[in-house]
Amino acid sequence: MGPKSRMTLVLVLLGFVLCLFLERSGLLSAYVLQISMYVGINIILTLSLNLVNGYMGEFSVGHAGFMAIGAYVSSIITVRVFHNQMGPLVFPLAVIVAGIVTAATSFVVAFPSFRTRGDYLAIVTLAFNMIVKSVLENIDALGGPRGFMGMGRLTNLANVYAWCLVTIFVVRNLVYSNFGRAVLSIREDEVASNLVSVNTRQMKIMVFLIAAFFAGIAGALFAHVMQFINPRSFAIQKSTDILVMVYLGGIGSIFGSVLGATVCTVLLELLRPLGVWRWVVGPIMLVVLMICRPTGIMGLKELIGLIPREERVLVKKEETDVVTASN
Amino acid sequence: MITILLQQMLNGLQVGSVYALIALGYTMVYGILRLINFAHGDIFMISCYFGFFAACALLSNAIPTWLTFIATMMVSMLLTALVAVLIERVAYKPLRYAPKVSAVITALGIGLFLENFTLATLGPTPRGMPSLLPNVNYRLGALSLSSVQILIIIISIVLMILLDRVVQKTMTGMAMRAVSYDKTTASVMGVPVDRIISTTFAIGSAVAGAGGVLYSLAYPIINPYMGVKIGWWAFIAAVIGGIGNVRGAMLGAYILAFVEVFTPMVLPSSTYRDFVAFTVLLIVLVVRPTGLMGRVTAQKV
Amino acid sequence: MLSLLQIEGLTHFFGGLKAVSDFNLELSGGEVVGLIGPNGAGKTTVFNLITGVYKPSAGQIRFEGQELVGLQSCQIISTGIARTFQTIRLFRDLTVLDNVRLGHFSQARYGIRDALIRSGNFRDEEKRIKDKALELLEAFNLTRYAYVQAKALPYGEQRRLEIARALSSNPKLLLLDEPAAGMNPREIDELLERIAWLKDEFDLTIFLIEHQMRVVMGICERITVLDFGETIAVGAPREIQTHPRVLEAYLGKEVS
């Protein structure tokens, strides 16, 4: 492990301690704490959707469907199976199980994606979202349309922070690898990708699995902040929110997603005094941004610190090379 | 049993006609811009409000009600078309050569804007559409049939046939198809692309405007959220039929309407409607990835 | 010599249209064979059938004895066949280096776990792939563009990059779809030299589609002529040049 990696590790641990401290010390109000957790959860959602929409170039509009599955599965585990006993011990496990179950459902979307692309795949994901919501509404044991409650407030800033880091870590290491390049090539030209030996089907399954896994994780965390979920919390509107964060931050950029999720969540809170007009001003800002900067804030660019060192050299060299190339 | 079936088919025909009018807007815009205009459901909602205000303003004893009805239709269609063209010019046109998702996100944004702007200015209280036409119930044996129902079905079908003629037979229709096929070539051949795109938005939204008035006659409660549900259903209809295909949209709308009215007959609760509709959609897309009447484009390598 | 590629009775329909009918071909290692014919004769379709883009309506394709029909494109490429496209299909937003690295996709010997934890194995493999890719870029005189987006390259360089990318999957058989399209005579001379060099340097068998007779006559040892999906002639360049059916279908226009 090089000195820089050790530095990163120290920073990560410091952040973790800071989270615990902030939460215990009461320095932050309950409100600020809550918003911070939403920011973290939204970062996880945005990054995982960016993997599908930004890196792979599909257009999934049903991410909230995956989130719903994670939220319900984890809540069933903590409330029904363990009756809110041993919360702090059970919860991390419940979150992981929720992620795995959610990942398993991603095949519903992954298989159609072999044959269908673009707008039609978007509609498949949309249908998935609607079906999940509709099924949940019809299961009386889970409260039906009234929703499911009784979860303890098991999510805290520290575990949101930890899952955020895991998501960033996984996405970053995946993207800067053979697999990541393959995923990017699907975005660029799927047919050509297949014809340079990329197993596009395998890649799609992989991406949908990972994206769904993290959406499930986010759902589980969300359920245990809210302590109450109902099918309507995971309607298309929720998926739309996540989409907006992805494209606001910029596709194909980890830092973009972090930025997009943060800006969006915080901005909506800051606009709260506007009341109903908040939802009038918000969309206008979005439209203006799309017209002025269609690629989002970062748009295919990455914060240098997030690029692995081997690849980072390339970026610096790129500038000098472009100069020589233009001579 | 047969009577119930027939009765439900009539209801399905009525619901399907309204869906078809809205689905046409989705399909026309998609056909020409390859853009899923997610704001269309809310444009429909706006048209209901236009219809409501027009009806309230025009309703008086001096004018016969059928004239008020026609005037209301006209006003709603015209204003809705204007709004749509305005949206196209301001929000979509700058993005015509941007990545397609930017346009889709913009459409989502515009939809949210319309919905919440209406909510903020007019409030969440539902408005009741005044009844413009005497609602007479006819009985055909055991079947009951209202005048409004007949009117909706007839006007919708006439509008659809008219639209189909426009797209297939007129110069404008030919230009639309040309732009839909290849914008660049069309413009080289002298087709005024911008004007044709605006015309498409105008026609598609005017038809939705007609749908709005007809819908509010049948279900006279108007609120800012109504566009979401109806919009999505019309959208699914367009996709099942093959988005981009005008006749497909009509077919899809009737299929979906029948799903909607027949589901409660087969399954215990009407809450399964969404589930069945979206499952139908999923199956159609898996079997025929471009919808029932959509063009299957061969992969070009 | 051992036969590398064997195609028997290959037939394909588009709707009711017969795009390729009863196409036969046998390629031995080290050959350069041409496929010519007027526009729409079904040449690219033959390539698409070999590489699994389309599934043939009938017929067999065997590569080193292995049946290819029914395999996915990526599996076919992994057996040792690579191709270029009539219209350039690079990964436009990716760097030149990444385009070439992608060709090595099936050769990377590490799993997702290795990538996630950045294991030693991962680092070694990534380095190996990068070195090989850079080597290829060097051979194709593209090194100075390594970190430039593919779309920023001039046309000729894009064509070269496409061949470099194809070669990165270590093929035994290279399918070139109109490599001289859009080139001027000087560039064509360069291309001919390059193909000859490629063949020796990478120990390749080459099967190419071409419109320009100069290219085909210059480097092909054997030529197959297609017209409306039918094979109308097979033979050495000289025989083809004087073959009456070929003159009628294709060369006729140019000779007169």
Structure, explained:
The complex is a heterotrimer of chains A (327), B (301) and C (256). Chain A is mostly helical and 327 residues long. Chain A has one domain: ABC transporter involved in vitamin B12 uptake, BtuC, CATH 1.10.3470. Chain A has a two-stranded antiparallel sheet with strand order 1-2. In chain A, helix 1 runs antiparallel to helix 8. The longest helix of chain A is centred in the middle third of the chain and has 27 residues. The C terminus of chain A is likely disordered. Chain B has a domain of 208 residues. Chain B contains eleven helices and four strands, in the order H-H-H-H-E-E-E-H-H-H-H-E-H-H-H. The longest helix of chain B has 32 residues. Helix content of chain C is 40%, strand content 24%. Chain C has a six-stranded mixed beta sheet with strand order 6-7-8-3-9-10, sandwiched between helices. Chain C has a four-stranded antiparallel beta sheet with strand order 2-1-4-5, covered by helices on one side. In chain C, a hairpin with a 2-residue loop joins strand 4 and strand 5. In chain C, helix 3 packs across helix 5 and helix 3 packs parallel to helix 6. The longest helix of chain C is centred in the middle third of the chain and has 20 residues. The radius of gyration of chain C is 19 Å and the shape is globular. Chains in contact: A-B, A-C, B-C. Chains A and C meet through helix 8, helix 9, helix 10, helix 11 and helix 15 of A and helix 2, helix 3, helix 4 and helix 5 of C.
Describe the secondary-structure layout.
The complex is a heterotrimer of chains A (327), B (301) and C (256).
Chain A: H1 3-25, H2 30-55, H3 63-81, H4 87-105, H5 107-110, H6 112-115, H7 118-138, E1 148-149, H8 157-175, H9 178-188, H10 190-194, H11 200-226, E2 228-229, H12 236-249, H13 254-270, H14 278-292, H15 309-326
Antiparallel strand pairs in A: 1-2
Chain B: H1 2-33, H2 40-58, H3 65-92, H4 100-122, E1 127-128, E2 137-140, E3 143-146, H5 147-169, H6 171-181, H7 183-188, H8 193-218, E4 221-222, H9 226-241, H10 246-266, H11 273-287
Chain C: E1 3-14, E2 17-28, E3 32-36, H1 43-50, E4 58-63, E5 66-67, H2 73-78, E6 81-83, H3 96-103, H4 112-117, H5 120-139, H6 155-167, E7 173-177, H7 185-201, E8 205-209, H8 213-219, E9 222-227, E10 230-235, H9 237-242, H10 244-255
Parallel strand pairs in C: 3-8, 3-9, 6-7, 7-8
Antiparallel strand pairs in C: 1-2, 1-4, 4-5, 9-10
